[in-house]
Amino acid sequence: MKAISAGLASERLELINIAKHPIFSRCFLGVAVIFGLAGANLCHAQAPSLIWSNSLAAKIFAIDAQTNLYATASNIVYTINGAGAVVQSNAFCPLPAVAQRDNAGNFYFAGSFDGLQDFGGITLMGGCTNCAGGHYAPGWPTCFLAKYNSSGALQWVTQFSTIPPGASNRADDIALNPDGSITVALDGQGALGLAMFSAAGSNLWVTMPYGNGPFLDFGGVTITPIIGTNGYFLYHHNTFSYQLTGKTYDALGNTSPYITTPVINKSPLGYHGRVIPGLSNNVFFAGMTIPPIYAVPFIEENLSDGTFLWTNIIGTAEMWALAGDGNGNFYVGDTNGSFAKYNGNGSQLWTTNYGQPVTNMLVDSLGNSFVNFADGSVARIDVAPSASFKLKAQMVGPSFLLSWPAFYSNSTLEWAPGLFGPWTNVTASPNMIGGNLVISNSPGSSNRFYRLHGP
Fold first, then answer.
1. Which residues on neighbouring strands pair with residue 438, listed in sequence order?
2. How far apart are CA 420 and CA 416, in angstroms?
3. How far is 379 from 69, CA to CA, in rounded Å?
């Protein structure tokens, strides 16, 4: 798409005709949208540099409102300030675990344990308690989910498993849902599981959406929160040529595939790959093709029901998706260390290489961006909030959604019957979804243009 200046002083505008957009062309004709904001540069962007890096080998998992970063290694949680200095470390949970943090400052840990374990005032018995002639036998751990407050006091802990007694369980990822519930992904000895818990720690359901035999070898599972009606998970199993499979899940534990053609990830680095939810029941992911065209890297967008939208074959190195920016754009890493950003149409916005592969990424609602590298080190990327700006339109039935980052909440959405106006404020109030403001508009029967006008 071409950046234009349409006689509107100080604004850089990007014009898209929905009638020619590959996603919208089958829906309706004759609506145009202006993407723009006073002072925002929407031309092809320069790749960002690193603001700082820290050799701390810990996996980042949360950013707070003060731009403090949280990372975990074994059972230690590190707090890193916005300048890259470790300012605090705590061992709230007694065992190694994957972690999450909510907006109130509570921490959630999911891992596995075997035998008696005191979690900070509550002791549970894990493992196979009905083995060896009806007695406990070591070597078959159970999963746990524990919640601690910001001071480290245990709030609750529970144990769970999708695997029958006599098998091993491993927690892979945690997702905090908007309603306060928690979803945990786990795997072990031939099966993949999902478990959902209430905000108070009660187990709502456990399901096993794939496998029930020791012949399967899972490399790991990544999961997203439920957004609207669906959450998404991506799982890697090594038995079937490193196949990569993705499904949705809902609040009742129902699952359905959104990847309907075989995809693979061969490198263990690819196990860090995530599915990136879009703005309207769409997802982005990366992988490699299987025969007859074998191991060709690509990125792809599908709807949540598996409907194919587009694919883009890129380079020769295996790729994985890392994170979205909240505006319908997403980030991808590869085994050669390339790190790139793509828009929702699959066009590359920029690419760079920091010397080693990026394996993990967090982006907050203001665009503050942090990454893990393959050696576990942590870095902050120099992405200004305005650099992540995008006014995006997507079809939903007879209407379309317009969305933009919440950072621009003081800007005004306007429409006009023609490119040169007259411009009128859109009176409907947007809804906050994640880090974005979203509004539904009926396009009407004639051409209509939209812009986001900065204060």
1. 403, 431
2. 8
3. 10
For residues 292-321, give the mean pLDDT.
86
Least Cα distance to 237 among 189, 171, 283 occurs for 189
Residue 269 to residue 223: CA distance in whole angstroms? 17
d(CA 106, CA 126): 24
Spatial separation of the C-alpha atoms in residues 67 and 259, rounded to whole Å: 34
Contact indicator for 286, 319 with CB cutoff of 8 Å? yes
The amino acid present at 432, given as its one-letter code, is M
The string of pLDDT tens digits covering residues 210-246 is: 665 554 455 578 899 998 889 998 877 655 556 677 8
pLDDT value at position 427? 81
CA dihedral over 159, 254, 439, 344, signed as positive or negative: positive
pLDDT digits 0-9 by tens, 329-340 = 999 999 999 999
Tokens 């007879």 belong to which residue?
398
Other beta carbons within 10 angstroms of residue 48's beta carbon come to 17
Q: What is the pTM of this model?
A: 0.75
How many helices and strands, by DSSP H and E, does the chain display? 0, 43
* Residue 20: φ, ψ to 5°: -105, 0
Round to whole Å and give the CA distance between 370 and 402.
27
DSSP code of residue 46: P
Find the angle CA(175)-CA(179)-CA(184) to the nearest 5 degrees. Answer: 25
Contact 166, 128 (CB under 8 A): yes
Q: Token pair for residue 252?
A: 């009742």
Among left, alpha and beta (phi > 0; psi -120 to 50; other), residue 7 is left
CA atoms within 13 A on the CB side of 364: 21
Quick one: which of 74, 34, 42, 41 has its CA closest to 58? Answer: 74
